[in-house]
Structure to design on (177 residues):
C-alpha cells in the first residue's frame, strides 16, 4: 500500500502548477471561452485529486483523458455538437490572409468525425506523442498511428475540395497525405 504522503497536497500542488495551463488550453480549443475552459480544468483536477492513487507518473495524457471524458459526458447530456462543428462555411476575408487559411482548416476539421478531430488535436494542438495520444483515447499505439494516418488523409481530402486555398494549405500540412 502507498504511503499517504506519497500523493498528498504537495504532490497535487505540483501537478496542478505544472499542468493547469495545459488543461485550460485543451479546453479553450474545444469550448467557448476562458471561463468554460477553466471550469473544465477545475473539474479535471477535482477528479485527479479524488483518484490521485490512479494517476500515472506521466500525468498530462491522463489529465487530457479525464478532460475528454468530461466533455463527452457534457455533450451527451446537452445533446449538442462540439463547438468545432458550428463553424460557418462562409468567410468574408481576403483569401490570402492567414486567418482565412486557419478558418478553412478549422472548417474542414469540423467536418471530420469526433474521433478524427480528437486524434488530430491531441497530436497537433496538444503536441502529444502517439503513445500519449493512445492513452488519452484508450487504444494501443499501433491503433492510434492508424487513426492518425487516416484522419490526416481525410483532412487533406477535405482541404483539397476547396480549390482556392488548397495549394497554400497543402504546403503547411507536409506529410499529411
Amino acid at each position: 500500500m502507498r504511503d499517504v504522503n506519497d500523493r498528498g497536497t504537495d504532490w497535487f500542488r505540483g501537478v496542478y502548477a505544472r499542468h493547469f495551463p495545459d488543461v485550460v488550453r485543451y479546453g479553450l480549443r474545444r469550448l467557448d471561452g476562458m471561463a468554460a475552459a477553466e471550469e473544465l480544468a477545475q473539474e479535471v483536477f477535482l477528479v485527479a485529486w479524488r483518484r490521485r492513487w490512479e494517476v500515472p507518473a506521466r500525468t498530462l495524457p491522463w489529465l487530457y483523458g479525464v478532460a475528454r471524458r468530461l466533455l463527452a459526458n457534457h455533450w451527451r447530456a446537452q445533446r449538442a455538437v462540439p463547438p468545432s462543428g458550428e463553424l460557418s462555411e462562409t468567410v468574408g476575408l481576403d483569401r490570402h490572409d492567414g486567418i482565412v487559411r486557419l478558418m478553412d482548416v478549422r472548417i474542414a476539421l469540423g467536418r471530420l468525425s469526433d474521433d478524427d478531430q480528437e486524434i488530430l488535436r491531441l497530436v497537433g494542438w496538444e503536441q502529444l506523442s502517439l503513445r500519449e495520444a493512445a492513452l488519452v483515447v484508450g487504444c494501443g499505439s499501433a491503433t492510434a498511428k492508424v487513426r492518425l494516418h487516416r484522419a490526416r488523409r481525410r483532412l487533406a481530402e477535405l482541404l483539397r475540395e476547396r480549390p482556392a486555398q488548397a495549394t497554400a494549405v497543402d504546403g503547411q500540412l507536409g506529410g499529411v497525405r
Summary: The first helix runs from residue 9 to 28. The two ends are 49 Å apart (CA to CA).
